[in-house]
Amino acid sequence: MFWADRVAKEIINSEKYKPYKVDEMFTPSGFMHIGNLRGSLVHDLMYKALRDAGESPVFTYVLNDFDPIDGLPDDLQEFSKYLGVPLRNVPWKDKEYESFADYFASDMKNTLKKFGVDPQFLSSWDMYHEGKFNEEIKAALDNAVEIQNIYHEVSGSQKKAQGWYPLQVICPNCGKLGTTRVYEWDGETVAFKCEPHMVKWAEGCDYEGRISPFNGNGKLPWKVDWPAHWKVIGVTIEGAGKDHSVAGSSRDVARELCKRVFKIEEPFNIPYEFFTIGGKKMSSSKGVGLKAHDLFDLLPAEVGRFLYCRTEYKQEVNFDPFETMAIPDLFDEYDRCYQHYIDGTDENFGRAFELSQINKLPVKEKTFLPRFIDVANYIQQPRIDIYQVFGEIKGESLNEVERDILEERIKYAKVWLDGYAPDKYKFQMTNTVSKIAESLTEDQKEYLKKIIPLIKQEISAEDLQLKLYELSKERGLEAKKAFGAIYMALIGKESGPKAGWLLQQYPSDKIAERIEEVTR
Ligand SMILES: [Zn+2]
Residue 230 sits in which domain range? Predict the structure, then answer.
């Protein structure tokens, strides 16, 4: 059984998580990166697996837009005066977006939509301002000592000074949230101070006063806010990256808070593994990796989705597209699952394909899939008709679906060749004899001389390919060495695209001249 279906079954069989409310969150303080998409897709798959099991799940996505700006990348330093201010209260550069949060949340929503992730988005800022967190704020303030004990027991953190409360308020004087310290609670209002030196990244204004903690004046710290919003929304299924789930982490704190403060059952946990690029964990601040929306320039949305679907949540997804075969390999695996989807031989693979689709599912009929790496090879040979070549490979001309697939692959193969492919996959006849041609053996040179009459014949690329092969057999030269000789002479590499097609890209005189040069 496909992993998401298996987990959904586990949830249903336990009878503990009804109604099924799947939830995930995102802090719109920067662009979503391709590592964040793992969480989006894990939750989307849970939602869809429950739905496909005949249940009626709900999928919400909380935007943590009440959080303060607590750091900025180099290109956003103009916002440094807003450090400490909630993301929703910081104006964006132009009027098109309502706030700093709105700008990044809009990008994230568009990205998810293109990926076929369509949850109900909820704003933390709005929920607090609508008073939906009032009851939980009161519970947290009333249980301030208990919450300190939980922090201490679970994560071993030092006990805070007396008069610590799990809340921050927006300073009415300077508008900052990240700098305020609440030190008293009388059941209706809290006393607070806007501290100049409490955090390194923002400076408070020294204002001191009393204020109601409710209706958006204050926000719970993240570790308390997380289980509080489970209660407010009624979340029953929510996972997080496994760093949040190791012993002593925020998940353990949240579990105790559910039990001892908010009096709810902990949602079903899905501690998913990281998404890495070349083994490195994604990090927006270090500029490692790609923004989530960049993935569409690289891959069709369905193949992008497949990258996340195919791997069970407990396993790391490693995707390093730079100068590697990661993209062609991904297409190959996608095709393998596509075939299983069509012929139904392996439910696991078929289901991975099915859940990767965004619009309607393709019809289950025999479909020829032009291999991505071959597409990349043929498009480097501009004189051939690629639709015809794949028709020849298939044995009959491509149907409409197949032509569409090929058209899409041509587009992405160009992207791959331009920006990502290893050099050895880029083929072009070199302008001068490449150094590698010096290592041609006498046998290879003899073989090359014999192909000159063949390339002067008016025959199809396929026939030429066949004759090149027969010639190698006749001469007792291994096919790999024979074709290798052609590549070494023409493109300066030991391997290359199908030689019959490659040779027909260039005037036969030009090739003959090159062969004479390398066989002298
Ligand atoms: Zn202040």
Answer: 3-123+222-276
